[in-house]
Each structure stands twice: as C-alpha cells, then as structure tokens.
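Retro notes - structure team

What went well: the batch runner handled both jobs without manual restarts.
What didn't: labels got mixed up in the shared folder, which is why I'm recording both outputs here explicitly, each with its sequence directly above its tokens.

Job 1
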Amino acid sequence: MNAPAQIDLDQTTNNPTPSDLDIIVRDERFNRESTPKRWWAGDAFGTAWHNALSATFPRGEAFFIEAVKAHREGTPPKLAAEIRAFVKQEINHTREHIAFNRLAADSGYDIEAIDQRVKEMLELTKGRPAIANLAVTMALEHYTAMMAHEFLANPAHFENADPEVRDMWRWHAVEEVEHKGVAYDTWNHATKDWSGWKAWRVRSLVMLTVTGRFFKNRWTDSINLLAQDGITGWKARWGLLKYLTVTPGVVRRIFPAWLSYFKPNFHPWDHDDRELIKLYEGEFSDALMPAE
C-alpha cells in the first residue's frame, strides 16, 4: 500500500537536451493566397483533423509562451537562450496558423466555435498556480513533438497534400522537434526542489488528463468540420477513426512515444531525432533569423 511513496525517483536524466543543440528561428510565411478546400490530398478526414488542430494553435501557443516565460527567472544561461528562441518560434507559428485558419474560413469552414471554446478553456486557467500551466504546456508540447516526428519521418502523411500547406506543416514540425525539450527543461528547473516522486506523479497525472481532453475535443471539432463537408453519422466517425488509427494512423503510430512519457526518468531528448531536422532545414535556410 505504501510502496509508491518509498520509490526514489531521481529527477536527473541520462539523456538531457543535447549540449550542442541550436534552436533556430526560421521566419517563414505561407498560405497568403488561395488554397484548395480539401487540401489534404482531397480527403475530408485528414483536412478536418488538421484544420481542427490548427484552429487551436493561435491561442494555445500564446498560452505555452506565457507558461514557460513565467518560470524563466534563474534559469541557466543556455536554457534562458533556448526559452527566448522557443518564444520566437512559437510567435511565428501563431502568425502562420492565423493565416492558415483565415484561408480555412474563406473556404467555407466555420472554425470560430473551436477558437471560442479554446478561449473559454484558457479563461479557466487564470488564477491557477503557474506551475500547473507549465505542466499542461509540457504535456501538450510532447504531443506536438510526437506528431511532428511522425509527420517528418513518414512523408506519406502530406505526400499528396497542397504543396504550400504541406510546407507549412513541415516547417512547423521541424521547429517543434527542435524545441521539444524546452518546456520540460523549464519544468525541471521550476521543480528542482520537489522530490522525484512528486514531480513524476504530477506530470503523469497531468498527461493523463490532457490526453483525455485533447482527443475528446479534437474528435468533436473534427466531426463538426466533417458535418460542414456533408459527412455525418457513422461515415464521419468511421472515416475519422480509420484516418487516425489505420491509414495513415498518426495516433496509432505515436502511442509508443506517448507511453514513454511515463518513464520515471523520461526526457524528450531520450530519442535524438535531429536527423529529421537536417532533412528539411535546407528548404528554410533563406528564412533564418537570429535566435537572440
């Protein structure tokens, strides 16, 4: 009964953020012109899922920025620099998803309800301890990193998508992989006086809560967007489930990475996937800007 309290969980990790990692800000712009309505290979299910994700990003990434910035005091110089670069990357992501969402709306999709619900959910975080917001940010950053890895490692996800939209998601994915350890390292700094057991328990419980809400809300949003495309009932539910778990099956494919989050000494850089960044960094080299 009392065994868990006796477990000594060290907060240190064997594979922290690589010392030679540089977080680079790539100031790209996309989707300023017309984009096909069903941009994901003409498929309504992939389009709905990614449109639902994108609709949450402007407010969500602003939340991430503030959650990390709230704990930057006293951070080591390297982490402080990474936080500054993280903020600049996320600001650019927000700008580009605002432009993308505007095109989705111009194509006839009503995504205002998604944005409004995100706004209402974020209102509930006001007055909450700042460390709670950081724990949520850390969990959601793990989601973005998992999906980013999958999108870059398996080009089939966007192989037949509209080229400019595909480039935006790849650009976003590169930077999500690159800064995947920032929120986690900030958490380790902010909770350095906690016991390993407490830090592990809190981040694990928060991940479970975030996971339930993430899939419930994205599923609801996607089903609503599919209804706007005239796809309802079992056809909508089966088609979306097949997209997420069979082909291309992004949820099925990220499950092992999700499970790894619950390891006592987990760190996002336990898996060094910087080779994925190198595959695409040349495409964005003309848009590099100083991170400082």
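Job 2
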Amino acid sequence: MLEVRGLVKHFGGVRAVDGIDFAIRPGEVFGLIGPNGSGKSTTVNLVCGLYAPTQGQILFQGQDIARVATHKRLSLGLARTFQNIRLFTNLTVWENLWMAENAPAHRAEAGFLKRWVGGRGNARERISQALEFSGLAHRADDLAGSLAFGEQRRLELARALAARPRLLLLDEPAAGMNAEEIAQLDERIRMLQQQGYTILLIEHHMELVMAVTDRICVLNFGRKIAEGTPAQVQADPAVRDAYLGTGA
C-alpha cells in the first residue's frame, strides 16, 4: 500500500532522513521506531506532505505522491493523528468530526443532502460510529477543549477515522497516556486492524509497539538500521545498541 524508496530530507547541512526504504502491506500494523532524533517524525511529515523530500519516492497504492499537495493526499486516503494534539478546541466534539467529514476531499461526493441524510453509510452515521468507537458519544456536544487529555487523544483518532483513510498514520498516540488508557489504545488498534485498516504506528512506548505491530522498521540518525517482526527487531544487536548504547 505504501512504499518509501531512497527517501532523503536535508535541513541545511543536517540529513534528517538519509536514504530510507520500507514498504507497508495492506491490512498490517507497521511500526516505525527509534531514539529521539532518529528521523521518525520527519519521515511521517514527508509521507503526509508537510515536507517535500530532497530526493526519493513515496508510492501510495502505486502512485508517486512525493510532490502531491497535502490536501490531495487526504483525498487519496492518507489521514493522521499528531504527536502534539491539534483539535479545534472551540468547537464541540461532534463539530470536530463534522470538519473531517466535510473536508474538501469529500465535498464532491453525491451532493450535500444525499451525503448527510442519505441511506446506509451517510456522513451522520459515520460520525456516530466514530463517536461510539472512541467512547465519546456522551460528550458529543461538549467543547473539545473541555475534554481530559486522554479523551482529546481519542478524539484525534476519531477525527482521523472520520476522514475515511486507507492508511492511518498514528504519531505517538500513547504520549501522555496512563496505563489504562494505553491498554484501551492497544484494544482500539487491534479492532481497527480487524476492520481492515492499514496502520503506520510511530511510538516510543515499546510494550504497545511490540504487542500490536506485525512488522517494525527501526531508525537511528536518519537511517534504517533494522526491519522485521517484533521478535526479530528485539533480538537485533544494532537495535539494542541504538537504544541502550551497547551491542551486548
């Protein structure tokens, strides 16, 4: 579904991403991990279109999107959450999801009335499903800014789902969560995979990554140092060296 070939990004003299290659298969949960400064967030921002690559290809369903505008990537089926929560805090929970459903990528569909009040799978129904999935149905009319931190994280996920992605990019979704909230996130990621979603997970919480991913790519200083199943990555000396400072 997504293939990155020879991806490079320079910021002045800094090689933030230095020739990365990986591919994500339809229906899998693919982890992208590495120490701070390893290039994870830069890679995600390149995939989403916030940065343009210095060189390399980003193929999404066979199409090179490296120079495609960010909003057009949404229409192709790329949606994401952010490491630092980015909600419309002065809008209600429902309105935040309405914004995702009413994005320009979806406006051309059918027509306003048919899209919103039509038959099965209409926009209102999809918003209701996102609210139920995120456990926020009881807070639909509350301002997003009034939600607790964990609830705001769940709303970001629900908003990304409302955009109807083919590939969902989760950028450190467990950051700031407590143990119970992380366990609930684990369950939601598994449910999304069962529903057929393809997920790119960028995360520092190793227990979560090892529990939910099918394969993992490990970055360090902008380069890929390992790729494989969670068990293979855990046993790789280069990974232990990057995280622990020793290959032993």
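One thing worth noting from job 2: The chain has two domains: 1-77+165-248, 87-164.
We'll revisit the folder naming next retro.
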